[in-house]
Amino acid sequence: MKSKLMILSITLIFLAVWTTQAMGQEDQYTSAMKSAIEMMDQASDAGEFVESAIQFERIATAEKIRWMPYYYASYALVVMSFDESDGGQKDQILDRAQKLLDRAMELEPEESELHVLQAFIFPSRIMVDPMGRGMIYMEKMFTELETAKSLNPENPRIYFLEGVNKLNLPPSMGGGIDMAKPILEEALSKFKAFTNEDPLWPVWGEEATRAELEKLQ
User: Fold this and answer.
1) Is the per-residue pLDDT at 56 higher than 70?
2) Which CATH number fits domain 26-115: 1.25.40, 1.10.287, 3.30.1490, 1.20.1260?
């Protein structure tokens, strides 16, 4: 009986130590991610976006089984790419963003947010050569949004991207204000309703949705 109690005591002590260490590592990860997200949110030029992407990659190197650092590293580069006017440079930035997103997809292939980000990459690709790439990447974008929707129909970023891209399509191709406005209104409604307990969860898109709707008033 004494030996069993001793084994139980040792086991409980081990579990307590392990739990404390795990909680410390989790707090460290969350703190590092919050810091990197704040850096990205405050970025105003290419260098600052690159620095935030590097910061996320450093976290990803230490946290190899988590998809979110790769996601944010990719997202920072995608956002930066829209301000790059040189087509060759834009493609290089997006190539790197794609590799990071691919790694995140390997870790969590059924995460709706990752498919939304994949869809977000394509409009920047189109800007390099609108005539040559437009139809190809537009189809891929809407395919990714449908996949994202099938995984989580409440994800508001799906409807934001869908609405913005419908807005930029001519009516003859199923776009225009009349088609886009209800989708953007649905996006805003879903942003208001959307909740997630993870403090690191993506929140981008709501302000941009409001801005687009204000233009249509």
Assistant:
1) yes
2) 1.25.40
